[in-house]
Amino acid sequence: MSGQHPDAGDRAEAASAPETTAPHANPQATVPDQLRLRLYVAASAPNSTHAQANLRALLASAGAQDASVEVVDCIREPQRALRDGVLVTPTLLKLGLAQLAN
Predict the structure, then answer these.
(1) CATH number of 39's domain
(2) If 89 and its partner were Cys, which of 18, 20, 42, 68 is the partner (CB 3.0–4.6 Å)?
(3) Environment class of 81 (CB within 10 Å of its CB; exposed 0-12, middle 13-18, buried 19+)
């Protein structure tokens, strides 16, 4: 008896085996992404004003101040709101991530 656990040799071989990586990393993976949001509001209604302030505070606390935020006033653009399926305000949509050009 050698005093080693029977699987000790297997673990040593596994530890010395080279780690594999993805064959080809996506070159676009290094391009930073920008969060894209759209906030539908009703002019300067109290809930809309609070929603805008809350969104700014949330983005600042999350370190996402550079997020792209489009504010759509449903009073000025009611057809756009209806076309986009917005029935109540304030409404926030996450449009996705846009890749920033370097």
Answers:
(1) 3.40.30.10
(2) 42
(3) buried
